[in-house]
């Protein structure tokens, strides 16, 4: 069965610290897609990244980086030199090619608090 | 600006009352979705629609109903049969119903019981 686990419920850091948010997924599909979303206090979910199962290259976008490892079924998200504006709930999500037309499977989210 | 508009932002429901949450998008997306978010939980799918005049139940459809008469609109009705409606409701859309398409979300509607 498909499942996304974000074991860290809450993380608190001080500005400029690096922080890694963990995501572990389960799927039987060989073709699937992984996503990260950010939910600031205002409520809307903001799309951050999509990664397909055939592309294990790590990606960096500014202070954000993602580490995708199929061997451990993980898709971790690192924020370098965190800032107060990074405070939000972060969701990891999975979609499977065999389930096209259905929705994303979300983890329960990790609440990140960055203090100044 | 292109995007997804949900209204109202806050909604209160009395016992035995049906209420309707609005979701409009001007992104020309074919697929639309409704999710429910409870504190400390991820998002759970209520209903989704891949094309006009067609929609499918998600994981927690009981007590909810939808319609998709226009491409840009996907209203959600929370019926009196939904015994625990207090939650944050998010509407989303994507270009198509393919699994590789990211979904774009509205700002949400927070529903409470009076």
Topology, pairings included?
The complex is a heterodimer of chains A (116) and B (114).
Chain A: E1 3-5, E2 10-14, E3 19-21, E4 24-26, E5 32-39, E6 46-52, E7 59-61, E8 64-69, E9 74-79, E10 88-96, E11 105-106, E12 110-115
Parallel strand pairs in A: 2-12
Antiparallel strand pairs in A: 1-4, 3-9, 5-6, 5-10, 7-8, 8-9, 10-11, 10-12
Chain B: E1 4-7, E2 10-13, E3 19-25, E4 31-37, E5 43-51, E6 54-57, E7 64-66, E8 76-78, E9 87-94, E10 104-105, E11 109-113
Parallel strand pairs in B: 2-11
Antiparallel strand pairs in B: 1-3, 3-8, 4-5, 4-9, 5-6, 7-8, 9-10, 9-11
Written overview of the protein:
- The complex is a heterodimer of chains A (116) and B (114).
- Chain A is mainly beta.
- Chain A is 0% helix and 53% strand.
- In chain A, the strands form three sheets. In chain A, strands 2, 5, 6, 10, 11 and 12 form a six-stranded mixed β-sheet that branches.
- Chain A is globular, with a radius of gyration of 14 Å.
- Chain A starts with a strand and ends with a strand.
- In chain B, 0% of the residues lie in helices and 49% in strands.
- In chain B, strands 2, 4, 5, 6, 9, 10 and 11 form a seven-stranded mixed β-sheet that branches.
- In chain B, a hairpin with a 5-residue loop joins strand 4 (31-37) and strand 5 (43-51).
- The A-B interface holds A 4, 9, 32-33, 35, 37, 42-47, 50, 52, 91, 95-97, 99-104, 106-109 and B 31, 33, 35, 40-45, 48, 50, 56, 58, 88, 90, 92, 97-100, 102-108, 110.
Coarse shape of chain A = globular
Q: What's the number of helices of chain B? A: 0
The mean pLDDT of chain B is 92
Give the DSSP E fraction of chain B (strand runs of 2 or more residues). over 45%
């Amino acid at each position: 069965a498909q499942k996304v686990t974000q074991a860290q419920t809450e993380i608190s850091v001080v500005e400029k610290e690096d922080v890694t948010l963990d995501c572990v997924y389960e799927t039987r599909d060989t073709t699937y897609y992984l996503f990260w979303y950010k939910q600031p206090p205002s409520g809307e979910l903001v799309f951050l990244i999509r990664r397909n199962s055939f592309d294990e290259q790590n990606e960096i976008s500014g202070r954000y980086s993602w580490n995708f490892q199929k061997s451990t079924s993980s898709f971790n998200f690192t924020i370098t030199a965190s800032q107060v504006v990074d405070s939000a709930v972060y969701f990891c999500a999975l979609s499977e090619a065999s389930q096209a037309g259905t929705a994303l499977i979300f983890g329960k989210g990790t609440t990140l608090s960055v203090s100044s | 600006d292109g995007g997804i508009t949900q209204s109202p932002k806050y909604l209160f429901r009395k016992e035995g009352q049906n209420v309707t949450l609005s979701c409009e998008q001007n992104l020309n997306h074919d697929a639309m979705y409704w999710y429910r978010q409870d504190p400390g939980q991820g998002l759970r799918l209520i209903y989704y629609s891949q094309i006009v005049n067609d929609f499918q139940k998600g994981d927690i459809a009981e007590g909810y109903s939808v319609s998709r008469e226009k491409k840009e609109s996907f209203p959600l009705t929370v019926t009196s049969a939904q015994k625990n409606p207090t939650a944050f409701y998010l509407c989303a859309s994507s270009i198509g119903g393919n699994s590789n398409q990211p979904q774009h979300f509205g700002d949400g509607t927070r529903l409470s019981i009076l």
